[in-house]
Amino acid sequence: MGSRTESTSGRRDEPLGEVARDLTRDVSLLVRQEVQLAKAEMAEKGRIAAPGVGMIGGATVAALLAGGALTAAAILALAIFLPEWLAALIVGAVLAVAAYVLVQQGKERVAEAGAPVPEQTIETVKEDVEWAKTRASSARN
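Below the sequence we write its predicted structure tokens.
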């Protein structure tokens, strides 16, 4: 009962239980390999991005220091014509509005980008699912 026989089409006819077991084993192996591929893909993306992230961090610190100096200069310039407290209030309000606009635009951009996902792996998983479906349907026929 568990023996394989050669069919007229040249392929082996296997018992359904054996086909199911083989398919389960193959799909399990495939899923493990796809997970490994996804991990490798994400690690590669992280390795490439890491130096850039460090540079952006350094630039952020420099920009904050420059922003503080420029803010002080703007307040001192306005203080020539206005009381100091009013000059500081005006500069602070302008900076608050600018920050709000930047945050709103940044949120929109992040939402457009979506989550970082291993795109290549997702495509190969879709192909693998189609392959498994094809194999399962041909095993039934």
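Residues 77 and 87 are 8 Å apart (CA to CA).
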